[in-house]
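Dock alpha-D-galactopyranose; give full complex structure.
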Amino acid sequence: MRNIVFGTDYYPEHWPRERWETDARMMREMGLDVVRMAEFSWAKMEPALGEFHFEWLDEAIAVLAKEGIVAVLGTPTAAPPAWICERDPEIEPMDENGQRLHFGGRHHDCQSNAAYREHCRRIVTAMAEHFKDNPNVVGWQIDNELGNSHDGLCFCPSCEARFREWLRARYGDIDSLNRAWGTAFWSQQYASFEQIHAPRRTVTGRNPSQALDWKRFTSDLVCDFSAFQVEILRRVTPDKFITHNMMGFAEKVDYRKLSEQYDFASHDQYPGGFFRPGEPDPAMGGAALDYIRSLKKAPFWLMEQQSAITGWQVLGRTPRPGQLGLWAAQTVAHGADTIVFFRWRSCAMGTEQYWHGILPHNGVPGRYHAELSAFIRRFKPLMEKTRGSMPRPETALLFSYDEAWAMGIQPHHPDLRYTGHLLTYYRALQKAHVPVDFVSAEEDYAGYRLLVAPLMYLMTPDLAARLRSFAEQGGTLVIDMRFGVKDGSNLAHTDVPLPGLAAEMCGMEITEFDCLRYGPVAVSWGSETYEGRLWADLIELKGAEALASYASEFYAGTPCVTRNRCGKGWVYYVGTEMDEPFADRLIAEAAASAGVAPLPFRMEGLECTLRQGDQGEFLFLLNHTDEAVSLPAEEGWRSALPDQGDVIPPYGAFVYTRA
Ligand code: GLA
Ligand code: ZN
C-alpha cells in the first residue's frame, strides 16, 4: 500500500449523489489520499433493527477509489439512531441528578448498558463483515472522541452496578474500601458493597477518595467500551488498522491505557477553535501533539486538523493567511505522519453548520482550499522522508491522570488547572527550544536528563523512590507545590512533613502555605522580580540553597525556589505557580544544570522541533507571529523545502536538514 499522507473527513450522505464524483476529483487534485467516513452514519447504515444498508457507502468508497483515495471508517457508536432510543430508552445516559439526557445531540449513550452493547456488537460486526474484503477500506476509527460529552456521565443503574463490581475487584472486602475512602468522616462507613452508589448529587460535599475512584472507574469503562469493539474488528478484519481520534489533554479517559488497544494514536487539533478566548496558543498546540506522540512513542495520525473558521453557536476567528498551513506544519513537526483535514465541505445542516470545511457551503474553493493545497504541494514530498522519524528529547514532562483527577476534585485555588499549570513549564521549554516528551508516573525516566514533574499531589513510596533515583543518578528533577500531600487513595499523608516523601531529597521543609486568593505574590530572583500565582509554599531550608525568595506578604524574604544536590543530580522545588518570565528563568537554570542542549535558531515567537530518522534529521521552524522573522545565521543546516530564504514570513514554516 502506498503511503497515506493527507486526507479529509468526508460526509457524502450530506450531499446529493451527483456531487460525489466532483468531490472525489477535487480531493485527488488537492493531493488527498484518504477520507474518514461513517462515524456518524448509523441511522443510514441501519435504519431499522438488523436492516443494513451499506450500498451507499460502497458506492462512495468506489467513487473515491477511482480517484485513488482510500477510506477509514468510523464505528458509529457515538450517535445511536432514534429507533434504538425508542426501543431501549435505558441506553440513554443519566446525569448526576438522576436525570436522563435524551436523543437530539450526540453521545446520548450509556457505555455500560447491556442493551446498548448488543446494538454496538450488531452494527460493528455487520460493518466488519461487510467491508472486510474491500481493499479500499484500510482501517477503522473506534467511535468518535470517546469521553467527549460524557464528562461526568453516566450515573445510571447499570453504571452503578458496574462501579460496585469494579470496587469489589479493587478492594476485595468492604473494610479495605472503608479505609481507602476514609469513611470514618461524616459517618460514611459502608457495611457492604451494595450500599455504595454512583456519586450522584449530594446535599453538600463529596468524599474525595470516592470521587477519585469514580474517575478511575469511568476511565476504565470507556477503555472497556472501546476494547469490546476492537475485539470484533481484530477478529473479523485482522488486516485493517485500528485507531481512535483522541483529544490531547482531555481527561475523561486515560489515553495511555486506551491507546494500547490501537495500532497507532490519532488526535483532533483545532488551534483556533471557539472554545478558548484569546489568540491561538502555540504551547497548547505543541503540548497536545507531543502528548499524543508520547502515548505510543511513535508517529501518529491527525484525524481532524482545522481547515477553516470554526464554531457551533458562536465562532472563533477566521484563520489568518498562512495560519492553516502553520498549524498543519506544527502537527508534522511534532511527529504526525498523516493529516486528515476536518472537514471536506461546510455542512448545510445541524449543530455544526458553522464548523467550516476546506470548501465553504457553496462548494466553490476559496482561500482555505488554496492555502491548504499549497501546503500539501510543499509538504508532501518532504513527508515521504520524515515518515517514521521521531523527536528525541532529553527532557520529559510528567502528565498523570491520577494527579489531573485529584486536582480537578480539589483544585485548591479556583483558578488552578492541572493542565494549565503544566503548560507554564511547557511554554518555557518551547520558548527555550528544548524539545519535550510526556511521560507517565509509571515509566522509567533513565533516558532523560531533565524531568519536570509538576503538581505531584498524590505520591506513593514507589514513585517517590523512582524520582529520587532519577536525580541520584545524575538527572535534574523539577518538582513543585503540593508535592506528596496525599497517598494513592487521596488521603493525606500523616507521617512526614511536606513535601512529604520528597522532603529529604529537596533538603527543605514546608512549614505552612498560602492560597493566593487576593492576587499574586512578588518573588525576587537576583535582580529580577517575578510573580508567584495561586499558591505559595512557605519553606524552611534544611541543606538546600534558596534561588528565589518571596518579596511581598508577611513571608517576604523566605525561600520560594530551592535547589538541592541529590547524588549526582539536582532537585529543584518551586513553591508557587510561576508567571511567564519566572518560568523562563527557572527552565533556563534547570536545563543548564541538566546539560540539556537546546535546538538552534532561538528567537521570540519561533517554535523549533527536530525529527530524526533513517532519512535524516529535519528541523522545523514555525513562526507563530504575524510578523516576518529574520533568521539568525546558523551553521550546519540546509533547506529541505523550496522557497526558503533568510526571512520566515508571518505564520510561515521552514524545514531544514543537516548540511
Ligand atoms: C470534534 C468531532 C467532530 C466535530 C468537530 C467540530 O473534533 O470529532 O465530529 O464535531 O469536533 O465540532
Ligand atoms: Zn450508564
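Observed: The two ends are 32 Å apart (CA to CA).
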